[in-house]
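P.,

For your records, the input lines for the assembly:
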Amino acid sequence: DTGVSQDPRHKITKRGQNVTFRCDPISEHNRLYWYRQTLGQGPEFLTYFQNEAQLEKSRLLSDRFSAERPKGSFSTLEIQRTEQGDSAMYLCASSPRDTVDYGYTFGSGTRLTVV
Amino acid sequence: AQSVTQPDIHITVSEGASLELRCNYSYGATPYLFWYVQSPGQGLQLLLKYFSGDTLVQGIKGFEAEFKRSQSSFNLRKPSVHWSDAAEYFCAVEEGTGGFKTIFGAGTRLFVKA
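Structure tokens returned:
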């Protein structure tokens, strides 16, 4: 068990470019979450997968954002036509089932800077 | 809608002193509550959680928290702070409507002085 891995750790991109982040959850965890954290704020929920099914999406997730979890293993978060307001830390978390029992295990995040 | 308020943006305590970080929540039903810690450049680590039973819960690293329904509070405490406790602390409430998403407070940054 190597924890939740996120790649890359840092990404600098020009406005208007597309970016894709990857998250590898703990292997036996069937639930996977994406959160966004801006400076001075707590994480904000973006989306949630149970196995390969995307069960919930936040209104924060505009149509420029898309997330997938093929085969219920790793997940990708893509941002199209990036804007400066997309600059943030993108956190992935996983849990085996109900977070009531286990809480989340978070990855170290991907810090996105849009210039 | 559920919400979490952490009234203190930052707190400074001396090493060895006691610590209390405040958290107030807004939620209609019995909440599921969490405290997480985030060190610089790191992801969040779960310190402790409450969902039922004893209102005083013990966590890792010597932390504890007390759930007080009458005050809608879930304050985090530690009797003696170590320099390594300097970090950002987040209180969170589970939105137990089947969506299983967690609402986080804005965080309290803890500074520890020698």
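Two observations worth noting. Chain A touches chain B through 25 residues (CB under 8 Å). The mean pLDDT of chain A is 92.

Regards
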